C-alpha cells in the first residue's frame, strides 16, 4: 500500500490511527488490507507485544517503522509505543443481523463505549445517522479497546434512508416517553435498537417508523447516560434473542 | 455560613463547586446547610432558572453574588452561569439499604456515570474504598447531573473496614472469573454490589468476603467498561429486589 504523510489527526484525513499494542494487533488481524504502516517507538522493543506485531506484519506484508518523533507527533500519551496507521473504510451492515442505530451521537467517549458494549452483547452492525461524532477519531478507537475492528459500520444521511434500505428490521426507538418497557419487550430478529442524541433524544418525527420503548428506571432521575441506556438495552435484548444466531459471527 | 476564599478547585480544598443551573438547584434543595454561596454571571438574568434559584436562596438564607470574573476563574466552560459553592461532607450509609461499593475507582467520568445510574436504579448508598478518584471534583459532580446530592456516600481506608461495619450485607464481587452469572443470581436485601479498579479489577484477597459473580457477555471482548458493568448490574439487581423497599426513599 502507498505510503502516506503522517499528520496529527483531523476529521478530513483519509486515514487514522490505532494507538497501543492491543488495538494495533486487533487492527492487523481483522483489517490487514487497510493497514498502511505500523509505527513503533524505540522503547517498544522492551515489550513482548512488539515481536508479535512484527511477526504479523511480516505475514501480511505490512511496513514497520521505528520513529520516536513521528509517534510523539500524533499520539496523545507519551507511553504510546505502537501505532497502527490505516485507511478509513465502511462496511455494509448485515441484513440478517440485529443493528444498533445511533441518531446524531455527539460524544466521542459514549460512541466508543457503546461499540465496546456492542461486541460484548453480540451486536456487530452499527449505523450512524449524520451528523455524528467522528468514529475514526483516535479517541473513539482507543475507547473501544479494539472492538471497533470487530464490527461493521456505515453512515447514512438521514434515518429514512436507512429505513428504506432495511425495511424488514423492526425498529425499537428508545425514548423517555416510550410506551413499552424494555423488560417486557420481545425481540425477534432482525431488529434495530435506535438511540438519539445525548441531550435531545430522538426527534418526534421518527415515531412513525417503529415502537417507542423505555428503560424502566426510578423517578429520581430525568434520564440515563446514552452509553448506559444502550448497554443495558443490548444486554437485555441479547438475552432475549434466539440463540441460534449467536454463533454466526 | 462563613464566607470562603474562592479558588480554582483542587483536591484539598474543604469546599467544592456545582456548575450549572440544574445541579445548583438540586444542591440547594437537598443539602441547604452545606451551601456556602451561589455565584452567578450577569448573563444568568436571561434565564428563568436564575429567579428560581434566587427564590430558593432567600428561603434557605443562602448568600447570592453576581461576579463574572469569579465564575470564569473556577468554571471550565464559558457558558456556566450559576455555581453552587458547598462544603464537602460525608454521610453514613443506610444499614437497611443495598450498597454500591467501588474499590479504588480511578476515573472521574466512570464515577460520575455510576452515581447517575445508581439513582436511576434505586441505589442510594455508595462506599468508596481508598485510594479513589475525588468524588468532589467538579467534573464528577457535573457528570452526575445532580444525582450526587441524592445519595449518601462514605470513604473507607480498606474493604475489611467496610465489611466489619456492614457484616450482614451479602457482598457480590463482580469479577471476570465470577462463578455465578448475573442473570441467574438472586438478590436479597441487604446486599452490596462490589466493583474493582478500571483495569486491575478486584484483588483476589477479597474473594473470601463474598460471592464472585460475572456479567454474561460474549467471548469477543475481554471486559466491559466499569460504568457499563455497574449500570447493568444495578438494572438487573434492582428488578430482582423485593419491591417493598423501593418507595422508602
Topology, element by element:
The structure is a homodimer of 249-residue chains.
Chain A: E1 15-19, H1 21-30, E2 35-40, H2 48-60, E3 63-66, H3 68-74, E4 82-87, E5 99-103, H4 108-120, E6 125-129, H5 138-143, E7 152-156, H6 159-165, E8 170-174, E9 180-181, E10 191-195, E11 211-214, H7 226-240
Helix pairs in contact in A: 1-2, 4-7
Structure, explained:
Two copies of one chain form a homodimer. The first copy, chain A, has 249 residues and is an alpha/beta fold. Chain A has two domains: 15-87, 60s Ribosomal Protein L30, Chain: A (2-Layer Sandwich); 99-245, SPOUT methyltransferase, trefoil knot domain (Alpha/beta knot, 3-Layer(aba) Sandwich). Chain A has seven helices and eleven strands. The first copy, chain A, has helices at residues 21-30, 48-60, 68-74, 108-120, 138-143, 159-165, 226-240, and strands at 15-19, 35-40, 63-66, 82-87, 99-103, 125-129, 152-156, 170-174, 180-181, 191-195, 211-214. In chain A, the strands form two sheets. Chain A has a seven-stranded parallel sheet. Chain A has a four-stranded mixed sheet with strand order 1-4-2-3, sandwiched between helices. In chain A, strand 2, helix 2 and strand 3 (63-66) form a beta-alpha-beta unit. The longest helix of chain A is centred in the last third of the chain and has 15 residues, at 226-240. The mean pLDDT of chain A is 93. Chain A binds chain B through residues 109, 113, 116-117, 119-122, 145, 147, 150, 183, 215-218, 220-222, 224-225, 227-228, 231-232, 235-236, 239, 249, and chain B through 109, 113, 116-117, 119-122, 145, 147, 150, 183, 215-218, 220-222, 224-225, 227-228, 231-232, 235-236, 239, 249.
